[in-house]
Amino acid sequence: MTHAHFINKDKQALERALKTITIIIEVNIVNWISRFSKQSVAIALSTFITSTAWAETIVITADRLVDVTNGNVIKNAAVVVDDNIITAAGAVASISLPTDAARIDLGDSTLMPGLMDMHVHLTSDATRHGYKRLEVSLPRAAITGVKHAKATLEAGFTTVRNVGAPGFADVALRDAINAGDVEGPRMFVAGPSLGVTGGHCDSNLLPYEYDNYSEGVADGPWEVRKTVRRNIKYGATVIKFCATGGVLSKGTKVGAQQYTFEEMKALIDEAHLRGLTVATHAHGTSGIKDAIKAGVDSVEHVSLLDDEAIALAKENGTYFSMDIYVTEYILGEGEKAGILEESLNKERIVGKTQRENFKKAVNAGVNMVFGSDAGVYPHGDNPKQFARMVKFGMTPMQAIQAATINPARLLKQEATLGSLDKGKFADIVAVPGNPMEDMSLMENVGFVMKDGSIVKQYAM
Length: 460
Ligand SMILES: [Zn+2]
Hints:
The chain is α/β, with parallel strands linked by helices and about 450 residues long. Strands 1, 2, 3, 4, 5, 14, 15 and 16 form an eight-stranded mixed β-sheet that branches. The chain is about 35% helix and about 20% strand. The chain has a domain at about 115-380: Metal-dependent hydrolases (TIM Barrel, Alpha-Beta Barrel). It is globular. The protein has helices at about 5-35, 40-50, 140-155, 170-180, 220-235, 260-275, 285-295, 305-315, 325-335, 340-365, 385-390, 395-400, 405-410; strands at about 55-65, 70-80, 85-90, 100-105, 110-115, 115-120, 155-160, 185-190, 240, 275-280, 300, 320, 365-370, 430, 445-450, 455. The chain binds zinc ion (ZN). Zinc ion binds next to loops.
């Protein structure tokens, strides 16, 4: 079938839908007018129009708007959306608002760009860890991912970076979202994470005779290059690798380096050659430093860093993605979810140090991005990290920038994502009240627009 065929088919379907909607409106207007005043009909109609895709221009107004580019909060603000693009944003007084547009007034709310989480595992289930994960097939994980994608989008995250999924289930999920089959955020996907034999990104739960290993296992410079090439072949748009041991893997030392500098350099060079950015899981100090020296774009977790690692990150413009909320879930709910005793012990040491080092990195001015590790904890709870980011050293503006403009820069997507600026994709969320005064309000995102379509709108 040709592309043109699809367009014609879609057009016919759209025309049919529009006819049906017109009839429904005509019938209902007669009913409504007999029951309500003309004004309430107009309100009902405008709400109806804004919640469907066929209003071409939409004006969204609210008491506040977070201008993440300049680090300001603008009062009495508006965003004008034409199809899926922002055509104007700022103080109402500074914009000539189109008169024929559909209007959405969110009142005492704060508008901000769609949120971006740089560390999720949408196909992982937070209630199944350790040996419980072995019961989950790849197709089952992919289907669970559908539910998680919706929960993540409804929590306000219009873009995620999925840093590790067995079987390229993340690629399938992304493609299903892009095709409109299921609802979810824009996904940048890694496919299976690369790691050394027996390392954090391998599967070490079963004994030798089961010959069980993860698909991302690659040892030596040429094998890692080949695995990067394979991941790209099957749809990866970012590369993730494990530089050091980790908390949730069996038999790995959390601080110990696993890939050599030579392997990391080959892996990162290969990805960069192909135009992909690279994220590395790294808790241990030497692994963090070698990954930065080898040119990695972001370091995940970054628990056991020192002053030299901070200086290196600043010098190289490396982003830190520090998941400082997840420790509360691991220590609170982890045992029930199947997390191994050795992992709980590792978390008891690492979690506290990571939070102290988060403060150091923020104070030193390292580029920071919001990365939650949702999948270890429940999807949709991502925003719980915002209040912790402020508690452990960020200003509210820095925390919001870490989840908007900074990730857009990390992903090299700042031309289209990350701020409410003219020409960018209409990914817009609103939080009731003023999160600058109370960051826990970020946990109540009430309005979500992705790519010009409203996916959530709170009752006003
Ligand atoms: Zn992770």
